[in-house]
Amino acid sequence: MKIVIAPDSFKESLSALEVASEIEAGFRQIYPHADYCKLPMADGGEGTVQALIDASGGQRIVCQVAGPLGQPVTAFYGLMGDGQTAVIEMAAASGLELLTPEQRDALHASTYGTGQLIRAALDAGARRFILGVGGSATNDGGAGMLQALGARLRDGDGQELAAGGAALAQLATIDLAQFDARLAECSFQIACDVDNPLVGPAGASAVFGPQKGASPAQVQQLDAALQRYADVLASQFGQQVAQLPGAGAGGGIAAAMLVFLRGRMRPGVEIVAQAAGLAEAIASADLVLTGEGRIDGQSVHGKTPVGVARLARQYGKPVIAIGGCLGSGVEQVYLHGIAASVAAVSRPCTVAQALADARQNLQLAARNVAALLKLGQAL
Fold first, then answer.
1. Where are the annotated coiled coils located (predicted)?
2. Which of 190, 186, 66, 188 minimizes the C-alpha distance to 122?
3. Comparing C-alpha atoms, which of 287, 350, 356, 299 is closest to residue 323?
4. Is 188 helix (H, G, I), strand (E, B) or coil?
5. pLDDT of residue 193
6. Do residue 30 and residue 65 come from a single domain?
7. 347: pLDDT confidence band, cut at 50, 70 and 90?
């Protein structure tokens, strides 16, 4: 029997590879001679770099870059085993988790550090890029990223704009004379599971600005600034991005990637699945196991377990999901190819206890799932 194990990480406790290893350990107690194939997964957010370097035999490379408010931060990117594909989590350089709630400043936060990660990967020889855009602290339309890559964003007096989304209200021209020439040789995939446009009631500022520290008045200010940005992109480059689905992802960085890096938006779990060879593994499997820290109604919106299940359903393979916990609306996942879902936590406990005992809980849950399967086979 071949069993494919393709989970996401359990946030704050276990990486995707560690989750897969504990599930395998639990199953081996009941099926010691099965053929196990572990493929760590992610959906484009936290853990995407680790999942892809684990799956490809790549390496994690640490860099010093500018954080969202210009402060030095230690960030990272992944170079996959082919030596040509860089995996970048925008949150590593420009993320909300790099700031305290009091520090959040959507008006001035910049994606400059994300551009520095791209430049570092270019220096290392990467020419294919996967960029996860979740968890950003920014609302600058990717302007900081462009500046880090050599573009010059100028106001009507020819002065370069300051950092942050608010400054885009003064944008007059974008000068690409010093834009890194190596980018013309590159391909970019944008791991994106939202379809928000750049501006408007469903745009980057209105939907995501408040969680990045923007007041209602600042949301309007930022939306107007991004509209100005979109107008310049339209008049100078002939690119209409204001209402383009997905252009508002990552505080609008997707818009810059679409226009200047010829990026292609795809669901993050699809990108990771393709890079990891998940379809090929599932095609010859008898059973697929997946999971993430919490499985609930939101899991159907681009999360790893449902992404894995949808792929497995194409091959007629059964899927069981093991989550750290099961939440409201979990029954929705059964409409997308998951046959059963199980919670790893088996007793009342605090969140801290659940995180501390994640390995033991997960392995025991996997062992119990395997035992039930074997019992069913014997009946």
1. none
2. 186
3. 299
4. strand
5. 75
6. no
7. confident
Mean of per-residue pLDDT scores for the chain:
94
Q: Which domain holds residue 369?
A: 2-39+277-378
* Global pTM value: 0.85
Tell me how many helices (H) and strands (E) the chain has.
Answer: 13, 13
Question: What DSSP string runs through 224-243?
Answer: HHHHHHHHHHHHHH----TT
In a 13 Å sphere around the CA of 132, the CA atoms on its Cβ side amount to 30
> Does residue 37 register a pLDDT over 90?
yes
3-state secondary structure of 286: coil
Q: How far is C-alpha 132 from the geometric centre of its chain's CA atoms?
A: 4
H or E element, residue 4: strand 2-5
Say if residues 97 and 203 touch (Cβ distance below 8 Å): no
**pLDDT(98) > 90:** yes
Query: pLDDT of 184-230, one tens digit each?
Result: 999 999 998 788 999 999 999 999 999 999 999 999 999 999 999 99
Backbone torsions φ then ψ of 117, nearest 5 degrees: -65, -40
Same domain, 30 and 79: no
Q: Among 246, 268, 290, where does a domain finish?
A: 268
Domain total of the chain:
2
